[in-house]
Amino acid sequence: MNILITAGGTSEKIDTVRSITNHSTGRLGKEIGELFLAQGHRVTYITTPQAVQPTKESNLTIIEIDSTKELETTLLEQFDHQKFDGIIHSMAVSDFTTETTLSEDLFIEKLAAKLTADGHLPDATDLRETLYRSLDEIGKTIQQEKKIPSGTDRLLLFLKKNPKIIAMLRKQQPHAVLVGFKLLVGVSTEELIRVGQSILIKNNCDLVLANDLEEIQGSHHKGILIDALGQTETAQTKKEIAQLIVKKVEEKWRNQ
């Protein structure tokens, strides 16, 4: 099989020295990748410089990215020249990316200028519309400083929503066995399964691995693998999760 795996966590730049990221280490993706390789499959592994990576070998291609936009571009490039039999989308993708950053003083200055541009303050309805419009315009302010000065008491960071990478995978690779991932925090098993099923249906996945951050500690990593029929299987470690995913993907591919 020709397998694509995404792993690690994307990073969104604030300036040239600061960024927003998450705590994903890529250890589960590494475990899955190495098991696919041990089974004789080819693996294209898209990850981040900070994440752990599988041991290099001839059937493994590693591609490093940083941001969600770079991930999207890299995936589309890969889809342009090869077909994948399985896609394991385990990467923790940032929901938002930075739009611009302003000091408190600069933000107030810009907002005051926008609100008083017509020479009067509008009524409550007009004020809300003006505020939304002003925030949209201020958000498009071009970041001038390569490194944001640290002298300001309060820093305003404008974020905009990233595209959902998982939403494009089925359209781009309609015949691949697609495995999605969903991480929640402090929910019941029933809620974890319910949300996992909704992700599976919404993105037309074959399987979704649902896990709870509170159930990931050291060698313990509880994961619930959900299939398109709503059936579930539970694993208790990263190794068990990897074994379960590889087995199910191979079975699904053989039965297509």
TrEMBL record:
One of its GO terms (molecular function) is ligase activity. The keyword Ligase applies. Pfam families: DFP (PF04127). Gene3D superfamilies: CoaB-like. GO terms for biological process: coenzyme A biosynthetic process. Keywords: Ligase. The keyword Metal-binding does not apply. Signal peptide: none annotated. Residues 2-103, 143-250 form the DNA/pantothenate metabolism flavoprotein C-terminal domain. This is Phosphopantothenate--cysteine ligase. It comes from Enterococcus plantarum. The lineage of its organism: Bacteria, Bacillati, Bacillota, Bacilli, Lactobacillales.
